[in-house]
Amino acid sequence: MENLWTIYIEYRLAWARSSLKGIGAVNNSGRGVWSVTKQGEILTPDEVKRLTKARQKIYSQHRHQTINSDTNETDEPIDEAWKDHLLRVLLDLSPDGFERLAQRLLREAGFVNVNILGRTGDGGIDGVGVYRVSLVSFPVFFQCKRYKGSVGASIVRDFRGAMAGRGEKGLLITTGRFTTEATAESSRDGALPVELIDGDRLCELLREYELGVKVQQRIEYDIVVDEEFFHSFRVTLHRD
Q1: The CATH number of the domain covering residues in 93-240
Q2: Which of 51, 117, 168, 178 could in theory staple to 182 by disulfide, Cβ–Cβ 3.0 to 4.6 A?
Q3: Per-residue pLDDT for the chain (240 aa), expressed as one digit of tens each?
Q4: CB neighbour list of residue 179: distance below 8 Å, 6 or more residues apart
Q5: Which of 195, 190, 194, 212 lies closest to 203 in space, CA to CA?
Q6: Which of 171, 67, 63, 39 is nearest to 109 (CA)?
Q7: Which residues lie closer than 8 Å to 22 by C-beta, 6 or more apart?
Q8: What is the pTM of this model?
Q9: Helices (H), the chain
């Protein structure tokens, strides 16, 4: 139970760092070293909440834009546009290239000793890395699937079978999406847990660690008209 709480805390910390980076309060290097920005130093807790809420609202609006019926063109959300582009690039990678990209991503995410396993006798496992959470560390086996469509439950079961006797934690990474059955199978009671990273989540992680994805920050200004300033100009001056 203590180990589960440690993992949960690490997850919440990662989510908080991502949110703070989204509003420009913190930044991180390519190796995952985080630092507070000048803007972050002057933001109050209330301002952080307000900016985070506003960012989430804008993100939600972008994701729910619909097709423009007047022009018959899709008013595509910004996030979906770059993700579609990125997924096309990932699908063009060679199998071993995609495995090496996964290896790099896991290293950036805090894994150590991440190795790609050989083609012969790997049993469907592409690699293994060690993940450390506080004082606890454990091996995680991973498998990469460059799929354009859906990944079903059978893939999860086969991967779990390949891990039998070798480890207790697996990570399945794909450019596609997981079916409902695959998601249920990944966390089935009594079976080795398999974490799933679909194409959408993979894009988010590549953006977070800036691996092949450049994030350009735009500064927005709120322009307010000060009517009090013009008040004196409304008064007619009497000249002699």
Answers
A1: 3.40.1350.10
A2: 178
A3: 445 455 556 656 777 777 788 778 887 765 566 778 887 888 888 887 887 777 666 655 554 543 344 434 444 445 578 999 999 999 999 999 999 999 999 999 889 999 998 665 555 799 999 988 777 788 999 999 999 999 999 999 999 999 888 888 899 999 999 999 999 999 999 898 999 999 999 999 999 888 899 887 777 778 888 877 777 677 665 555
A4: 150, 151, 152, 153
A5: 212
A6: 171
A7: 52, 55
A8: 0.61
A9: 2-22, 38-42, 45-63, 78-91, 95-108, 153-163, 180-186, 199-208, 227-231
One-character DSSP codes across 186-234: HT-TTS--EEEE-HHHHHHHHHHTTSS-PPPP---------HHHHHGGG
Give me 39's structure tokens: 């803007």
Q: How many residues does the chain have?
A: 240
The structure tokens listed for 177 are: 């999406």
**Residue 156 class from Cβ within 10 Å (0-12 exposed, 13-18 middle, 19+ buried)?**
buried
- Give the position of tokens 């919440």: 12
Domain boundaries, the chain: 93-240
Instruction: State the number of CA atoms in the 13 A half-sphere of 226 facing the CB.
Output: 4
